[in-house]
Specification:
With 476 residues, the chain is of the alpha/beta class. It is built from 16 helices and 19 strands. It has three domains: 221 residues, 3-Layer(bba) Sandwich (FAD/NAD(P)-binding domain), CATH 3.50.50; 128 residues, D-Amino Acid Oxidase, Chain A, domain 2 (2-Layer Sandwich); 75 residues, no CATH class.
């Protein structure tokens, strides 16, 4: 066992995976988590949002021997199932290549599996109900408050890594204690609320099992991801205020809990307020008008909508991520992103993987490791943050646009025909060997070209695929 003791703040997905990586390198690891142990506590309603596990996250799980186990607990999603207000659904495949799909996984199930795996190593210890309230950037000492007793204790190791999410206390201390610390926080005008579609009476699925379902409505949307028990976890994305908003459905009752989908469980759900018939009627009228094929599948719509919290959606960017070798920000604490590319968890897992590779190269020279890590990752986390926001508007608006539908059909045909072609979505989602920044640069150029081509035709069959691929190759 190494004499180095590493403090991790936050036992979420990134912190638990990182504990395994560090334990495999024989470090002693202490993980401090503000919440109770989720393995012994009931998870609050509105906090079980499913996650889309894809190649970058799978690669990190493979490093620690957890990929096959988690994929056995996942449901493959081969494409987006589009639900118009009226008319038949349509599946838009994620890729034209066989075997490329994303996986619906339980956030809590994955987190529990990672904690259990980490505790198999003798050098790893988790401490729950222990909230970090501050960090001394000069000494590297964190202050931990015992949620049960109110006692404050100092904690210090050889170094500290903060995986405490978008509301990171360590990052807040760096904001005030690190000279020229750059920080930005940008909220969308939209928030989100978790809803539920139960299994069919026979335990089957009420919707197509192997798809991510989207109800795009231009200014808002709803999505649904499948669960192993036959249910679907739905997420409604609405503006906070204005027409067709949370405020318009429940005036004066909007709650603002959580920061992003990845960070929402830091708050308690809002209590159910006294429901007037007019408010309930407003909700059902909205759903009957906008989601007529879904409302009949949601018997607990009113209970879920009014009991579950309304979460905010935002992007955090900051730099530098380290204070010498004393501390490092990782995952959402360094770069919280909106969930619309399904890359928040995958990006954080890739953070762990990249950090581990640098530790393998430099050992416990933490300042060198952290400095190089920031130089490698910052440009890529900024890229996925930007793409995630852009994808919100694509999912909400473009998936119902005929030109966009033709572009996706063309991309699928190109991927089926030319092995060296990858759409922007495929580069981000299925190419863990390709940095996000490169995927963004190449993907944006391809998107612009293909949208121009598809705007001038009525049918993809009109196109000569050789001519199209040659134009794409000329972009490089």
């Amino acid at each position: 066992m190494s004499e180095q003791k590493i403090i991790i703040i936050g036992a979420g997905l990134a912190g638990s995976l990182l504990a395994i990586y560090l334990a495999k390198r024989d470090f002693e690891v202490e993980v401090y988590e503000a919440r109770p142990d989720m393995r012994t506590e009931e998870i609050s309603a509105g906090r079980s949002i499913n996650l889309a596990l894809s190649d970058r996250g799978i690669a990190a799980l493979r490093d620690v021997g957890m990929d096959e186990y988690m994929l056995r607990e996942a449901i493959p999603m081969h494409g987006r199932m589009i639900h118009p207000v009226a008319g038949e659904t349509r599946l838009l495949p994620y890729s034209g290549r066989s075997g490329e799909y994303i996986n619906s996984v339980s956030r809590a199930g994955l987190n529990i599996a990672l904690m259990n795996e980490a505790e198999k190593y003798s050098g790893v210890r988790f401490f729950f109900d222990q909230k970090c309230t501050g960090f001394d950037t000069r000494t590297g000492e964190a202050v931990i408050e015992n949620a049960l007793t109110g006692e404050n204790i100092p904690v210090k190791g050889s170094t500290l890594i903060a995986t405490d999410g978008g509301g990171s206390a360590v990052r807040d201390s760096m904001l005030h204690g690190v000279p020229r610390f750059n920080f930005s926080q940008q909220f969308l005008e939209h928030g989100y609320k978790e809803l539920h579609i139960p299994p069919a009476p026979d335990g089957g699925f009420m919707l197509e099992k192997n798809a991510l379902h989207i109800w795009p409505r231009h200014k808002f949307m709803m999505i649904a991801l499948p669960n192993f028990d036959g249910s679907f976890t739905c997420t409604l994305f609405l503006a906070h205020t204005g027409e067709n908003s949370f405020e318009s459905i429940m005036p004066g009752k909007e709650s603002n809990h959580g920061f992003t989908q990845m960070n929402a469980d830091k708050k308690e759900p809002s209590s159910v307020f006294d429901l007037s018939s007019s408010v309930v009627n407003s909700l059902f009228s909205f759903f009957q008008t906008q989601f007529p094929d879904a409302i009949s599948l949601m018997p607990t719509l009113a209970e879920d909508f009014f009991a579950n919290p309304t979460g905010n959606l935002g992007t955090i960017k900051c730099f530098p991520w380290n204070v010498g070798g004393r501390a490092l920000l990782l995952g959402d604490s360094a770069h919280a992103v909106v969930p619309f590319y399904g890359q928040g968890m995958n990006c954080a897992f890739e953070d762990c993987r990249m950090l581990d590779s640098l530790i393998g190269r430099h050992g416990a020279d933490w300042e060198t490791v952290y400095t190089e890590y920031g130089q490698l990752r910052k440009v890529n986390t900024d890229a996925i943050a930007d793409m995630a926001e852009e994808n919100f508007y694509e999912m909400r608006d473009a998936v119902a646009d005929p030109v966009f539908v033709r572009k996706r059909e063309l991309e699928t045909k190109l991927e089926q025909t030319f092995p060296d072609y990858f759409s922007k979505y495929s580069m981000v989602t299925f190419r863990e060997d390709l940095p996000y920044s490169i995927a963004k640069e190449k993907g944006n150029a391809q998107d612009k070209l293909l949208m121009e081509i598809c705007s001038e035709i009525d049918n993809v069959a009109e196109l000569n695929l050789e001519d199209v691929i040659n134009k794409i190759r000329a972009l490089s």
